[in-house]
Automatic annotation (TrEMBL):
This is Cell division protein FtsA. Its main location: membrane. Belongs to the FtsA/MreB family. Cell division protein that is involved in the assembly of the Z ring. May serve as a membrane anchor for the Z ring. Transmembrane segments: none annotated. It holds the Pfam family SHS2_FTSA. Self-interacts. Interacts with FtsZ. Signal peptide: none annotated. It comes from Lamprobacter modestohalophilus. NCBIfam families: ftsA, PRK09472.1. The keyword Acetylation does not apply.
Amino acid sequence: MARRSEKNLVVGLDIGTSKVAALVGEIRPDDTIEVIGVGTHPSHGLKKGVVVDIESTVQSIQRAVEEAELMAGCEIHSVHAGIGGSHIRSRNSDGVTAIKEHEVNQGDVDRVIDAARAVAIPADQKILHILPQEFIIDDQDGIREPIGMCGVRLEARVHMVTGAVSAAQNVVKCIRRCGLEVDDLVIGQLSSSLAVLKEDEKELGVCTVDIGGGTTDLAVFTDGAIRHIAVIPIAGDQVTNDIAVALRTPTQHAEAIKIQHGCALSSRGGQENIEVPSIGERPPRQLSRQTLAEVIEPRYEELLNLLQNELRRSGFEELIAGGVVLTGGSAKMEGIVELAEEVFHMPVRLGLPQSVTGMEDTIADPVYAAGVGLLIYAKQHRFAGTAEHQSAGVWGRLRNWLSGSF
């Protein structure tokens, strides 16, 4: 096995409800990421993004990591892992501090971030990310990088993301059982957005929607910063279940039918015949693709309406001129972009992972959006010391509240 310099490697581990994906990236001399290994394995130990079976999750992680190691020709020792589920919460917060030397330095930024995070959160929740939105110096707002600027008062506006302690503990436990360490836990909304959004979209205002197997993750960006996140507990698995019930076919066959023949618009279903395996000893039946689309469309329409309601409730619906970007494995459904445009009444596009090179034929797929985003996040945070790393990096804090858990 060829050995690669481990200091230039970053590893993303996307632990989803339907699949586990491990991606290995090598940071090139020009500071780009080249994907050199990908491993995937079906996930059987999670429900709606949360670990419910430790052993099954460990086995899925192990298989995916082994496949990625073999392809990349390296040994994986630590990962940046994704975390999701309906337990994820977020809120906006402010912090204020005095500028000690009348010129902002790193210490001032660290103090104002600490001030912003000093808010009461439930005992069963822990901070996962503190994401700076903007800094204000002496009433001058809209500052992205305050270090070196002069003033006497520094204020920070941040987006604080918290998650359930138990959910994070279980993810870390599964990864450690595979002989790996966790460099960081990253919410799915953040990693997917890093992979599929362009900077001008974030500035103009955009909503990214990651439709997975168990949950649908939403994130809103305006003025270049994340403003709102939400989790909808409806996704691809509910569509599969609808097909299984309506067509009276086993779940595994319903999933295959959905992937091969599914369409989110009944008007585009067509009369092409599909063979549908029956339950028990009954012979298979022939149904039209139109009939299948009539089962799928209402569930996707329900999901999109829930997302639209969440956008309206958040107050950001009128501020996302860049429209909606759909990604995730369940966003590959034919017709979903057109259906989403009908529901949202704004531009919608399918988001493919970008900003990385290597294995383009494999990773140019919405399925790998979160995994590629984890690589990008890992590269951005590979050196400790910046305020963003200290505030957003979770593992330094995880060591304290997980140390006695295993």
